Amino acid sequence: MKVFLSVVLCVMLCIQPVLAQEDTEAGEAAENEMPGSAEEQEGAKTQEDDQVEETSETQENSEGQESAGTEEPSEQAGPQISAPSAILMEASTGQVIYEKNPDEQRPPASVTKVMTLLLIFDAIESEQIRLEDMVTTSEYAASMGGSQVFLEPGEEQTVETMIKCIVVASANDACVAMAEYIAGSEEEFVKRMNERAAGLGMANTHFVNCNGLDTDGHLTTARDIGLMSRELITSYPQIRDYAMIWMENITHTTEKGTTEFGLTNTNKLVRHYEYTTGLKTGSTSLAKFCISATAEKNGMEMIAVIMAAETSKNRTKDAIALLNYGFGKCSVYQEEEAEKTPDIPVKGGIKETAGTAQEELFSYVDTSGANLSSIERKIEMKKSIKAPVKEGQEAGTVRYYLDGKEIGSVRILTTEKVKKMSYPDAVENTVEKFLP
Length: 436
Known about the structure:
By secondary structure, this protein is of the alpha+beta class.
């Protein structure tokens, strides 16, 4: 009898982890197979949130750097990324820290909405639209399906509410409603998306819709997602205020009455990674699991793009691994105050010299572990410039060197106008020189 019980116990212990694994994989497969969905409905899965939190834990290593999970990424090999395509970019400079098949075209799912949001904020910046404007939902917009906030035909919401629906809940219906409000039709809006992409140098991107639903030819790359994400967060830093909302309610007011609808952020990093600043997740059966994740630590902001991860947990783990790798490997040199630059001689002007100054402060991202306090600054001025001199005219260059190698430069510009000397001016100057 004892032998029989021992055998039964042994069998139960062996099959238990197998059953648990099958349950997990089945759940993730179900997410992958949602037809036409531009975003997994993660908002309602509070139990999965706790599981994600476990995979998102970070730990300090002996050098004060952080790593995701239990594996510390090697500085030589880089972080261990399971997704087939990824990129890590420092936001202020656009410098690429890590890449894995960054130019491989793939469907981006709802990460498409980064460009949609960029055009929305462009329209706000140009005063074409305002946050308080009321946007009416068309029948077409209401028919999108997939990830949505269930806007009804004829329903009105403010531009700001629509932005929250797009950023937080990844709402396909809100995307199309905003596209129609700004451009008259989704087709025209998508044309503008592609024009904006071309202007950012997104050479391997072609958008077919504004929300990321699976469609033939709707493709981009990890590098291009990094480019449009950087443009959004640097040009419109207020996007962080929306991207960091975890939960919020909106009000539906229709002919049927008034109801409350809860938004829950699809980006679990907002809750489970302390340095998170945004930005956008996405998943479809074709795209699998994607994210453009932004995070800031010690004044340095990173953009981590993951495409085609097999599961939402792998997406989260990969993004955190990239971000921790960037924060551990990189250091930023930021010039706090520009040193004075010399005046430049002016030929044939009513003044002999013109004042100058640096065009901007210099910044540099280092990934080699170099001592940035040893950066040297050298000024190169033109011998002279001819009058008339305009304000903002190039007068020289400040060059920066690290260990004897040039790492960047900043232009020196004139800070004043100098008129060309006329004959009466020349006479007056001559008299002034000889008279006591």
